From TrEMBL:
It comes from the Bacteria. Residues 95-208 form the GAF domain. This is Transcriptional regulator. Pfam families: GAF.
Length: 423
């Protein structure tokens, strides 16, 4: 029995409800008719804490996603994938996806209407569809077991994915055999047939052959070097992260003043004069001579090629954890914005300009959280240092919590405590 049979779907959904609720154990799942490979995947999904009522979380966004795409080994074979899978997908209700080896969706193409519907379960570029994050699904489970996989509707672990079926086949490095990612078809029951599996399997073989040919002819494009990354959110010491020529990540701690300067330069791509930078760093007690001395020291830390002068400006594009939070907010993904926000921007900084940026970022995130109406997001905010004493946040959580729930009781109790403090 599989979920491809409409008569079996109700039985599988009932087995899923019982399993998630703890009423039956993993050993009992196969007796319900669930395929053994799917039963094992459900067990792994539950063990890793996958929420059966949510879609996949975001992982890379914005510039980070663009970098992953540009550097991914499968990228040179995209024309092959589009020719064999995407070009004929218009009007078919089929979505074509390419994932990295970690389960991150890198490209999602195919039928426009189907892609729009798939967005409701966060089946979009940048989302993490690994089995450990999204539960049983064809691309994530295929990567977890390194084998081709078809998942029919109710076999998905997450309920929001159960209206869909999917087929995925891993792609391997033609030289080393290392797992590079997976190709996936997502749509209705027709994408989980033997014919669909044969098509995706043939495309994976064509991709691997294409990559092998490019290597033999020496025409594989060189990936763009990763951008330096600035980490300045939260209580940890600010850091400058670069990837060396061997692919190793190198982390350099920054002084508070150097972190201030890099943040301000990243926000002023047009550049800043020494006078203007001095004013942004300290409106009263900083002179131009001190700024020039700090810039000289900073160049030794991040490389002279990184910062120009007259005016001071960044000469290479960089990324930052600020950018990641803002990109998630721009995409409307408040949960991921919270994931990327370990705390305020440079909380020890006395720079008035950094202070303004700190307030803007925190208040923008707070507003997005409070207007989301999502109890899980609101709870995370209210339990964070920024939201612990946020009366409006606790009020929003009280309104969003299910009547009679422990979450509602917690919110009501916290509000009473805050009101007492104000009395």
């Amino acid at each position: 029995m599989t979920a491809a049979d409409p008569r079996a779907s109700a039985a599988l959904r009932r087995a899923h409800e019982l399993f998630v609720a703890g009423a039956i154990d993993a050993a009992s799942l196969e007796s319900t008719g669930l395929r053994p490979e799917v039963a094992r995947s459900w067990q792994r999904s539950l063990a890793t804490g996958v929420n059966p009522d949510s879609g996949a979380p975001f992982s890379p966004v914005g510039e980070e996603l663009a970098r992953l795409r540009a550097n991914h080994p499968i990228a040179p074979a995209l024309p092959v994938i589009r020719r064999l899978l995407v070009d004929d997908a218009a009007g078919t209700g089929v979505v074509v996806a390419v994932t990295g080896a970690d389960g991150t969706l890198l490209w999602v193409e195919g039928d426009r209407d189907a892609r729009r519907r798939a967005e409701a379960m966060n089946f979009v570029p940048g989302a993490d569809w690994s089995e450990r994050a999204a539960g049983t699904n064809a691309p994530g489970t295929a990567l977890a077991v390194d084998a081709e996989m078809q998942i029919h509707r109710s076999e998905h672990f997450s309920r929001v994915v159960q209206p869909w079926s999917c087929t995925a086949v891993p792609v391997h490095d033609p030289t080393t055999g290392a797992l590079l990612g997976a190709l996936d078809l997502t749509g209705g029951a027709e994408v989980a047939t033997p014919q669909a599996l044969a098509l995706v399997r043939a495309t994976a073989v064509a991709v691997e052959s294409h990559l092998a040919l490019l290597r033999l002819t020496g025409s594989t494009p060189q990936p763009a070097p990763p951008r330096p990354r600035l980490a300045v959110l939260g209580s940890e010491r600010p850091r400058w992260l670069v990837t060396d020529e061997f692919g190793h990540l190198c982390t350099t701690p920054l002084t508070g003043r150097h972190a201030d300067i890099l943040v301000l330069l990243s926000r002023h791509p047009e550049g800043l004069s020494a006078d203007h930078l001095a004013m942004l760093l300290d409106e009263e007690d900083l002179d131009v001579v001190t700024v020039r001395a700090e810039m000289s020291r900073l160049r030794k830390v991040v490389g002279a090629h990184t910062i120009g002068s007259r005016p001071y400006r960044l000469l290479v594009p960089i990324t930052s954890d600020i950018d990641e939070v803002e990109a998630a907010l721009d995409a409307g993904d408040v949960a991921t914005a919270l994931d990327r926000y370990p705390g305020p921007l440079l909380p020890q900084s006395i720079s008035p300009a950094v202070g303004r940026l700190r307030t803007e970022l925190t208040m923008t995130l707070r507003t997005a959280v409070l207007t989301s109406g999502d109890p899980a997001v609101l709870r995370r905010w209210c339990n964070s240092p920024d939201g612990r004493d946020d009366r409006d946040g606790w009020r929003a959580l009280l309104d969003a919590a299910a009547p009679g729930s422990a979450l509602q009781a917690q919110a009501r109790g916290r509000l009473a405590g805050l009101d007492l403090d104000l009395a």
